[in-house]
Write a structure and sequence with these properties.
Length: about 375
């Protein structure tokens, strides 16, 4: 078996960058990138660019053509070996004459999970995996979470002042962040399956919760509203027949209020109990409804409830260079919180940039389903 070299890592990083180009377009499938290298020269590159479309390996093989014979295929996820919406990639790889396959990670999907590697090895190809596996798992964390526990990947988003306020004491929050930051928020929204806020945010701001301009996905608007207070004349309800709105209610919601919202095109989700909406049960239901990525935009009680439930997986934060002061409760997270600083969550991957004076910080938190396995 050949030794994994620094060149292997370099080509895999290129494949990972290619895979990321599919973000928002391929879910609930994983993002996958592939590059083909022969005698140190890149001869083919591709990524999975749309749900139900050709896989990354197929795109790369088409670009490489005859040059694939005897080459090395670098792919960010184990090639599929089953018939799904597309034919098995393993057969295309074998038929192309590829001599060596280097993968970042095994696909945990039960119909693949090692079977792709076994099929390639049985056909005489050299197979290695585990190259840049950590980065591959971070890239496909939403896919891994939904496959592992059936819940969508939760990104918490908020904008705040330099002293940590998300609104003035009056509740006014327009605008904390600048136009460039708000434009980036719309890009993030356009990659999501759902955008969630609490009813107090709706009553205060009357938001639309849409991506403008639209992105690769049209996210469902989801409102936590245990007693069905969502106004029938709100922007959300008035547009519910154009962009879906789900209102999550408890058994305490008056039936006539729920029926009035239904008549306007809003879909209710009834969860057991008469108290606050239980976050784990909600995420289970959203997973059953097919959501892979969920953006939670607030307010502080809602974000705090997700944090207390251990269900914040990533953050998108915008910090304005302004100071507000005051001792009011308009802060990003409320809820119970932690008792000791050592218990606070820490981002394992983060990126910081400056957007016309605002500081943008995004990052992810390590979760159990991302644990590495030993490549072979």
């Amino acid at each position: 078996m050949s030794i994994v070299t620094e060149e292997d890592h370099r080509w895999m990083r290129l494949a990972l960058a290619e895979a990321a180009r599919g973000r928002g377009a391929v879910e609930p499938n994983p993002m996958v990138g592939a590059v083909i290298v022969r005698d140190g020269v890149l001869v083919g590159v591709g990524h999975h660019d749309r749900y139900g479309g050709p896989h990354a390996e197929v795109h790369a093989l088409q670009e490489a053509g005859e040059a694939a014979h005897g080459a090395t295929l670098y792919v960010t996820l184990e090639p599929c070996c089953h018939e799904g919406k597309t034919p098995p990639c393993t057969e295309a790889v074998i038929g192309s004459g590829i001599a060596r396959v280097v993968a970042a990670m095994r696909d945990p999907f039960p119909r693949v999970s090692g079977g792709g590697f076994a099929r390639l090895s049985d056909a005489g190809l050299t197979v290695q995996w585990g190259v840049e596996e950590s980065e591959a798992r971070f890239l496909n964390a939403p896919y891994l979470k939904r496959l592992s526990i059936g819940r969508p990947f939760v990104t918490a988003k908020w904008a705040m002042t330099l002293d940590g306020k998300t609104a003035c004491h009056s509740g006014d929050s327009k605008w904390i962040s600048n136009p460039r930051s708000r434009s980036l928020v719309h890009e993030v929204r356009g990659r999501m399956d759902g955008i969630l806020v609490g009813i107090n945010t709706v009553l205060l701001d009357d938001p639309e919760l849409t991506a403008r301009p639209g992105g690769p996905r049209c996210p469902t608007r989801i409102i936590l509203d245990s007693t069905a207070r969502l106004p029938v004349d709100s922007k959300l309800v008035r547009t519910a027949r154009t962009v879906p709105v789900w209102v999550v209610v408890s058994e305490a919601a008056p039936p006539q209020r729920v029926q009035a919202l239904q008549a306007m095109g809003v879909e209710p989700i009834l969860l057991p109990g008469s108290g606050p909406i239980p976050i784990p049960e909600l995420l289970d239901e959203l997973g059953r409804r097919g959501l892979t990525n969920l953006l939670v935009e607030g307010g502080g009680r809602v974000l705090g409830a997700f944090l207390d439930a251990g269900e914040v997986d990533a953050v998108e934060v915008f910090i304005a260079p302004t100071l507000e002061g005051g001792s009011h409760s308009f802060t990003p997270f409320r809820g119970a919180g932690v008792a000791r600083m050592t218990e606070a969550l820490r981002l394992a991957r983060h990126r910081v940039s400056v957007l016309d004076g605002d500081v943008s910080l995004s990052g992810q938190i390590v979760r159990p389903w991302w644990e590495l396995t030993d490549g072979a």
